[in-house]
Amino acid sequence: MLPRSTTGATSAGTSPICILLLAPGQSIHTIRWANGLAQRGLDVHLAALEAFPEGAYDPRVRLHRLPWGRPLGYALATGALRRLVRRIQPDLTNAHYATGYGLLARRAGCRPMVLSAWGSDIYEFPRASSWHRRLLQRNLNAATVLCATSQAMSREMSKLTRGMINITPFGIDESAFSPAGARAANGPLVIGTVKALETHYGIDILLKTYARSRALLRTTHPALAARLELHIYGDGSLRAALEALAARLDIADSTRFMGKIPHDSVPEVLRGFDVYVALSRMDSFGVAILEASACGLPVLVSDADGPAEIVADGQTGFVVPREDDLAASRRLTELLLDPARRQALGQAGRQRVLDRYTWNLSLDAMLGVYDRALSKIRS
């Protein structure tokens, strides 16, 4: 029997466990984990090398800004983290991001340590060099318990460590991400995405897909083609190149590059879409895809690891081969021509989120991990 409970103070003689989170202070994922754990009654401390956005965190979350910035802070803030650990004496540390914060937790000797991988730390970092791979392996092997956001990421991690890997997906707030009301019958028909404008998210493939579908529909269904719009939310290093590509594809007149938006604006944006498209070359999970599904949208995704896992092909959306704009345009055209199919896929997608990916389910999974970590260290 553990002397403390991960479900809050439930009886005489027990008290909430004290958790130290090491994670990027400005990430929406960090904000959600910290606030959710505090709302479940845990004593939550968050330490980060970045500044914390004002007003983002539950007042019960105690924030600790570590000295130095990234990337030097991952090595140079070790002493400061050790002093913080001695002062607050957490029951366990949960480091999020297996490279930077995993390194910091390992060097500081944090035990027990739950290490949560996020994506690029597993899919990109170890491919940079043999040194990067060895560093990541040392971080993974130092953890008491390991976590991945998807089965696909777990399989990738298994190539680097023999440790048991728990699945703790990023959950979706199903009350915030909810379907829109009825849309105007003859209004704009909006295809959209919310992604950074970088190579691995395949925005160029989306533009080519949209261009193919629009060109075909201009011939076969000109009235419908005239209603089409492509809305791209997000920013990144490829924006100018992608805008130039849209012009070359002759779709600039109906393509809108909307720029980056705050996360609390995303639900309303998604409710303005008719189809959500994510044709990533690489993606370890796909939070935005699940958010779109929660809003009742049909989704069209590539067969990158994460999206292919979370989308039920033909049931909640369509999965197409990576970098295949012809296959994607066929599925997109099919969706654009069939509003009843769009609605059915969207409804099934929301139900899948409710069954598997709500924020409460993710918190339950993480609390189970914490219990296992504490049991393991005391056994």
TrEMBL record:
InterPro entries: Glyco_trans_1, Glyco_trans_4-like_N, Glycosyltransferase_grp1
Domain Glycosyltransferase subfamily 4-like N-terminal: 19-150
SUPFAM superfamilies noted in UniProt: UDP-Glycosyltransferase/glycogen phosphorylase
EC number: 2.4.1.57
Keyword Phosphoprotein: no
Origin superkingdom: Bacteria
Keywords: Glycosyltransferase, Transferase
Pfam entry (one): Glycos_transf_1
Gene3D superfamilies registered for this protein in UniProt: Glycogen Phosphorylase B
Residues covered by the Glycosyl transferase family domain: 185-352
Protein's recorded name: GDP-mannose-dependent alpha-(1-6)-phosphatidylinositol monomannoside mannosyltransferase
